[in-house]
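User: I'm preparing a small set of examples for a lab meeting where we compare how different chains pack in three dimensions. I only have the primary sequence for this one, and I'd like the structure in token form so I can line it up with the others. Please keep the answer compact; I'll paste it straight into my notes.
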Amino acid sequence: MKYTIGDHLITKKAHVCGSNEWEVLRIGIDIKLKCVQCGREIMMFKADLDKKVKTVIEQRKSEQS
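Assistant: Understood. Below is the structure token output for the 65-residue chain.
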């Protein structure tokens, strides 16, 4: 799956805060994510993330400018 910075991901399981929406902050060997509700940041390998993602909400054009 392809991810870009600013995308929002919906995961299969919820975070401990109750939200299942994450924002992509950095892409490399591992991917840095930020929980939309509580602001917690985590890093995860792409292969592991691919298994946990349900859907990807792409960044809107208006947010890019």
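A couple of notes for your slides: Strands lie at 8-11, 21-27, 30-35, 41-45, 53-57. The CA atoms of residues 34 and 41 lie 4 Å apart.

User: Perfect, thanks.
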